[in-house]
């Protein structure tokens, strides 16, 4: 009976270890680790885009792009806010989350959350290309429409531009964190 328990215990331990390795491979090796923001050795920011050339050691997106950005839109319905969060991730993974809040023409309000994945690995100074967005939260859903692919670019004054790659329409964001 003792040898049987030892065998069962060994098999259980090996199965758990294998499961851990598979989860790490599926979710990326930085899964579960806090982003440290360490810079890649030898990276030098340009005067035109502060921090753009600094790579985060955990992924391909330059450190200057990472974090929370805020913007707004004013139209006939009123003032709408935008919060853009850019996180580290590899091609095909969600790196952009956009929260949009504002008034509706009928007097109500909307709350939308969009997500978009990185489409190609950016150069050390950017820009960052993200694919079409999907609606993660829509209140009401009829007010939230998925967006087209966009290009993120750091501007010389430290702001961030998000431009629609089809129309060129853009919104500028300021760093919030």
Structure overview:
This protein has about 180 residues and is of the alpha+beta class. The protein has one helix at about 1-25; strands spanning about 65-75, 80-85, 95-105, 110-115, 130, 135-140, 150-155, 160-165, 170-175. The longest helix has 26 residues, at about 1-25. The chain starts with a helix and ends with a strand. Mean pLDDT is about 80; it is low at about 15-55.
Brief characterization of the structure:
The protein has one helix spanning 2-27, and strands at residues 67-75, 78-86, 94-103, 109-117, 128-130, 134-139, 150-154, 160-164, 170-175. The chain has 177 residues and is α+β, with helices and mostly antiparallel strands.
Mind sketching the topology for me?
Blueprint: H1 2-27, E1 67-75, E2 78-86, E3 94-103, E4 109-117, E5 128-130, E6 134-139, E7 150-154, E8 160-164, E9 170-175
Antiparallel strand pairs: 1-2, 1-9, 2-3, 3-4, 4-6, 5-7, 7-8, 8-9
Structural descriptors:
alpha+beta
Number of DSSP E strands:
9
Strand order across the biggest sheet? 5-7-8-9-1-2-3-4-6
* Rg from Cα: 21 Å
Distance N to C terminus: 60 Å
Strand content: 35-45%
> Could you list the spans in which at least 5 consecutive residues all have pLDDT below 50?
16-53
Number of helices: 1
How confident is the prediction overall: mean pLDDT?
A: 79
Structural class by sheet pairing and helices: alpha+beta
The rough form would be described as globular
